[in-house]
Automatic annotation (TrEMBL):
<dbReference type="InterPro" id="IPR046956">
    <property type="entry name" value="RLP23-like"/>
</dbReference>
<feature type="domain" description="Leucine-rich repeat-containing N-terminal plant-type">
    <location>
        <begin position="36"/>
        <end position="76"/>
    </location>
</feature>
<keyword id="KW-1133">Transmembrane helix</keyword>
<feature type="signal peptide">
    <location>
        <begin position="1"/>
        <end position="20"/>
    </location>
</feature>
<dbReference type="InterPro" id="IPR032675">
    <property type="entry name" value="LRR_dom_sf"/>
</dbReference>
<dbReference type="Pfam" id="PF08263">
    <property type="entry name" value="LRRNT_2"/>
</dbReference>
<dbReference type="GO" id="GO:0016020">
    <property type="term" value="C:membrane"/>
</dbReference>
<keyword id="KW-0732">Signal</keyword>
<keyword id="KW-0677">Repeat</keyword>
<keyword id="KW-0812">Transmembrane</keyword>
<keyword id="KW-0472">Membrane</keyword>
<protein>
    <submittedName>
        <fullName>LRR amino-terminal domain protein</fullName>
    </submittedName>
</protein>
<dbReference type="InterPro" id="IPR013210">
    <property type="entry name" value="LRR_N_plant-typ"/>
</dbReference>
<keyword id="KW-0675">Receptor</keyword>
<keyword id="KW-0325">Glycoprotein</keyword>
<keyword id="KW-0433">Leucine-rich repeat</keyword>
Length: 220
């Protein structure tokens, strides 16, 4: 080995010994943090009213699995808190409970295009104020006659950050007067889509005062 070759090898060894190489760790886990116990409890309460079948997403929800891996559920990978619930067109039947609005960090809820036969409002409606981050709620064609439901509009009024509300074909023919319109107070709402087959009541001026920040309105 020549002197020149030895010097080159020595220099290379010196470079490698003084250079720090990053260690890259890869994981396929969608969530490194397990779901929050309170969020899991709320989702399981929601599931109670659903008539489970093997082909619906909630059939994968169980007490012994992490709710962050449940179908239709999205969690924040850093905190394990539920941020989205998407059960759109999932063949769900039974009762829909708005206990999901008690999820503290949820931002999107899509329950549209299902076939529920009743809507259940939490006994303690004040707990819904926890959903201060909810910006999107879709209850389109969920099979429920909201004219016969009570307190649902008061529940909506507990969502201060709600930007978009979808209520297409929920049998709201007289929702301007039942429940009273003063409960319809959504200061952040920008989009309201509530197309119905027919409205049997006129639209009072108070309604437009309640949605003065709305930029898109569809009551076709």
């Amino acid at each position: 080995m020549t002197i020149l070759t030895s010097k080159i090898l020595l220099q290379l060894l010196l470079i490698f010994s003084t250079t720090r190489f990053p260690i890259i760790i890869s994981t396929n886990d969608q969530s490194l943090v397990k779901c929050h116990d309170k969020d899991k409890e709320i989702l399981l309460i929601f599931k109670i009213g659903i008539l489970d079948s093997s082909d619906c997403p909630t059939s994968t929800w169980s007490t012994n699995t992490d709710c962050c891996i449940w179908e239709g559920v999205t969690c924040d990978n850093a905190t394990g808190r539920v941020t989205e619930l998407d059960l759109n067109d999932s063949r769900l039947k039974g009762q829909i409970t708005l206990s999901v609005l008690e999820l503290e960090y949820i931002s999107h809820v899509n329950l549209g295009l299902n076939d529920f036969d009743a809507i259940i409002i939490p006994i303690n409606i004040h707990n819904i104020t926890h959903s201060s981050k909810l910006v999107y709620l879709d209850l389109t064609i969920i099979g429920i006659d909201l004219n016969k439901a009570t307190n649902w509009l008061q529940a909506m009024a507990k969502l201060p950050s709600l930007l978009e509300l979808q209520l297409n074909y929920c049998n709201l023919s007289n929702f301007m007067t039942n429940p009273p319109i003063e409960h319809f107070n959504l200061p952040s709402l920008k989009t309201l889509v509530a197309s119905q087959k027919n409205f049997t009541s006129s639209i009072p001026d108070e309604f437009f005062n309640c949605i003065k920040n709305v930029t898109y309105l569809d009551l076709n």
